[in-house]
TrEMBL record:
Entry protein name: L-rhamnose mutarotase
Transmembrane segments: none
SUPFAM superfamilies per the UniProt record, alphabetical: Dimeric alpha+beta barrel
Taxonomic placement: Bacteria, Bacillati, Actinomycetota, Actinomycetes, Micrococcales
Family matches, as InterPro entries: Dimeric_a/b-barrel (IPR011008), Rham/fucose_mutarotase (IPR008000)
């Protein structure tokens, strides 16, 4: 299992629209995310527009490929694109992935050995 954390920047004037759109994500999009193998998926949005996302997956490559090939994911990303700073493509394909530097369970397991 791989943990993935990413960041994007929502334009300040679009924070309410971003929150509204995510209050009721299209059911077909929810199923596409699940079918892609992303689990424990959460998004966090700060008042300055900093968006942090987190999910777990068995294969980042397979999950990304599944969503890249999904018509509903392409439509959702097009629906969301105008809300991001510097949007030059699908946000799900241009997000900055953050390297993990600490995980409690990993370190507890290592310390127990």
């Amino acid at each position: 299992m791989t943990r993935v954390c990413f960041r994007l920047q929502v334009q300040a004037e679009h924070l309410d629209a971003y929150r509204e759109r995510h209050a009721a994500v299209w059911p077909a999009m929810l199923r596409a995310i699940e079918a892609a193998g992303r689990r424990n998926y959460s998004l966090f949005l700060d008042d300055d527009g900093l968006l942090i996302g987190y999910y777990e997956t068995d294969s980042v490559t397979d999950a990304d490929a599944s969503l890249a090939a999904s018509e509903v994911a392409a439509a959702w990303e097009a629906h969301m694109q105008d809300l991001f700073d510097g949007a030059t493509g699908r946000a799900d394909q241009t997000a900055r992935v953050l390297p993990e530097v600490f995980n409690l369970e990993d370190q507890l397991a290592a310390a127990a050995e």
